[in-house]
Amino acid sequence: MPHHVNRLTIAIALASTALIAGQAAASGFQVREQSAKTLANALSNAAAGAEDVSFMAYNPAAIGNIDGNQVAGGVAHIDADFELQDATASQGPIVYGVNQSGQGGETATVPSFAAKMQLNERFDLGLAIYAPYGLSTKYDEDWIGRYHAVETELTTIDFQPTLNYRASERLNLAVGLRAQYADATLSNAIDFGTAAALKGGTPGRDDVIGTVEGDDWGYGYTLGALFQVTDKTRLGASYRSEIDLTLDGDATFRGTTPYSDGAVATEADPRIIDRGGKAELTTPANLNLGVYHQLTDRLALMANAEWTEWSSFDELTVEFEDSTDDSTTTENWDDTWAFSVGANYALNNQWLLRAGLGLDESPVPSPEFRTPRVPDADRQWATFGATWMPSPELSITAGYMHVFADDGGIDQDGSKEENATKGSLNGTYEVEADVFALSVDYRF
Fold this sequence. Notes:
Porin; 14-stranded antiparallel beta barrel; 21 strands
């Protein structure tokens, strides 16, 4: 029994490291919607576009392409839909459901801000505040996969002071410090009825909901270069380092029936007593490469490739404040590439139309590593938008992105050690998302 007690506790605390769950609009848990201009072009102008100060979030050298001082602010609204269809769940002889479905999509609003000032002919100083990673998913507490996931909330905020050096009339080089704050809340159910069956519990009914909350600060850097090859062609490259985080938090428990709620309230079982713990995780490094070409006075073409080092997320280790042994599980994510192309067309001096297409690889290598927290699959984007410039100093941009994701099978095997208290879960995920973005920038 003590070994089973430890495993049940581990199942909840281990989930605290699964905060890095999939964001429907980008692979893994990445958020790329820091600018309405980049979103409307399917991110094809991320590395080389350098149209306003908000591009500092993608390439810090972008501020060298902007003379004078500028501020920009924006907001993106992400409406994601995850649905597991034809699902089957069981634990040993207990069957939790057959051919059921569960919907876990949520909406999220992601703000961003950036500002820069030109110090002199050689140097620019900037500050960007944005969310590079995040997730919001929530399933019903009685859904078929509740022992794997119920709710996941992840918020990250990067504070990025940036210094750009104008090495020549054509070359900008930049470096930025990234101070990243991460805050997370996650929950899943425990089949306490099965664990306490000999004391009157009902398997599959007397559940306990375990919730883990944790936060931390981490630090990294970003590097960028912007090269104006000709008057019409610009190349961009940027690198963002990985950031190590240690999420310190607490696990709390509550019952879903009078029986399980009473057991929690009286601390009748060590498996459902509040406790603390910590989990080490790394947000991945990535590289952006891009080209921007002004084909005619009205038409501009652009392309971007982004590499993300998701292989840094190879395993999760949880350490507990009590005597429970550490727990490690393998994730085995792969590095990924995302590719996009886009175009801008100037109707006149005040209106610029934008469009783009993109595709993004999933880091999840196979169905056995896909979970309800990371219902990730290869995806494609289609985007459009427009920029209105009522004056040379002011521009307002609106963008829209629709994400088409491939179906993704899930094959969580209950015989695996990390699923000892969660059971098996099988089915097929359908994922799609809509993203709306609005931004304003002003030069002075």
